[in-house]
Every structure is written in structure tokens, then in C-alpha cells.
Amino acid sequence: MTNKDYYMKNNEKPSAVNEEQAYYESAEKARIIESILLSDTEKFKLFTKLMRINIMLRNAKVIHAKIQE
How far is CA 60 from the centre of its chain? Predict the structure, then answer.
């Protein structure tokens, strides 16, 4: 039984939470389809970019300073 059948059966409107979940699921499907259509070269460039960002963040030194008012 799908969510639509459930709501129709109980004469209730879908809640905002379910609509938001449906939006995320459709966005996820769109991203999967988009990533499938990428060429191998594009995937490699994206991979190397992420590797460089990872190295940069791994070597970063975070210094906390108190905010002066």
C-alpha cells in the first residue's frame, strides 16, 4: 500500500513531513540519474577535486579565539 492509498483510505491530507520526504526522494533520484550520465573524465575530475579538498582540510589547523566585545 502506497502513501497515496493510505491517505485516500483515511480521508486525510498528507502532512508536511511526508511531502518533504517525497521531495528529498525525488531530488535523490534526480541526482542519481545525473551522476549516471557523467562521463568518466568528469567523474575523475570530480574525484580528484574531492581528494584535494580532503587533503587541504586534513592539514588545516583550527585556532579558536575568544570574541572581544
Answer: 25
What is the rounded distance in angstroms from the CA atom of residue 37 to the CA atom of residue 16?
32
Q: Where are the beta strands (DSSP E) in the chain?
A: none
DSSP notation for 1-69? --HHHHHHHHT-PPPHHHHHHHHHHHHHHHHHHHHHTS-HHHHHHHHHHHHHHHHHHHT------PPP-
Question: For 22-53, how does the pLDDT look when each residue is reduced to its tens digit (9 = 90+)?
Answer: 888 888 898 889 888 989 999 999 999 999 99
Domain ranges across the chain: 3-58
Q: Which three cell numbers stand for residue 28?
A: 535523490
Dist. CA 54–CA 46, nearest whole Å:
12
The pTM of the whole model exceeds 0.85: no
